[in-house]
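User: Fold this one for me? It's Formamidase.
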Amino acid sequence: MSLIRDAVDRQPVAPGALHRLPAVPGNVHWGYFDAGLRPALRVRSGDLIQAEAVTHHAGDDPDLMMDAAVRELFASIPEHDRNPGVHLMTGPIHVEDARPGDMLEVRYLSMVPRCRYGSNLAAHWGHLYREFDERERVTIYEVDAGATTARALYAYDVEDKYLTPGRITRCPECDRQRALSGVRIPVRPHLGTAGVAPDVRGRVSTIPPGRHGGNIDNWRIGAGATMYYPVAVDGALFSIGDPHISQGDGEISGTAIESSLNVMFQIVLRKDFSFPSPLLETPRNWIVHGFHEDLDQAMRNAALDMLTLLTEHRGLSRDDAYSLMSVAADFGVTQVVDTTQGVHVRMSRDIFAAPDRD
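Assistant: Here's what I get for Formamidase.
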């Protein structure tokens, strides 16, 4: 009953060694998780990692979103090796003594934009692509100096579909259009994709989310949040990628504001509890995720796993947990633009703090 509660109450873990993991050739892999991949870094439980996460959409405005190191990185990975997914991943990180059945607790401490610009692509996999005459459109955003809000800088239409991960486009000044005048978007940096290697031979696409994590696209996976990933292979082999500076629930056009981030996190190996899916803890909530090709089934999966949290880790009866979910849990659509749909359900941690009064 106490294991999740103890986990999310953030028991102090003495910081271990500090590692730096730059996104350079040899430390990245494009489009996949792979249990057979050579680790880019080896750490122990409690160690801190300062890692670079580079967006695969930096080419939507290379002058604004690419520095020399990012250009070199893109040039180092041939297009035919960017598959079967699309996300540029940093890692994997091998965690000493991690074994299948353990949980990897990842405490995200800070996420700082690498540059002041990001890109949103209204893509052919977007939910309303047909309603926009099957036309793709890029909107470039600029982050203010305080990194609190972003505004649309300009937009342009793209004739060719985004089929090559890391595509580099150059929009002539005359083709640029004004966009979202007078609108400011809250900046909330987060990772769209992160997770451990699945127990599968060969490459596993970064696009669908699942038990291992992957492309969850929940904007709450930012600084101050903790994720728990079920370990599937020795060493866990944890990777991060798909950095965003803002996104709404649903990610309706197909992408967020895609922009590179510098991420600081601590990895803690947990052998004292298990959970069937990626579990998110924020300062106020537990958030459980459900995934499936069908959105209704994704909703059901999220509900069943929240039922597991409330019964097995909070000690409620199934009937009490079911009632509580209906009156206090908030279900939301995380994203509808991957091959696997996502639903998340939030449960406030505060409601368990009040003593009973007869």
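One thing worth pointing out: The chain has two domains: 14-115+186-281, 285-349.
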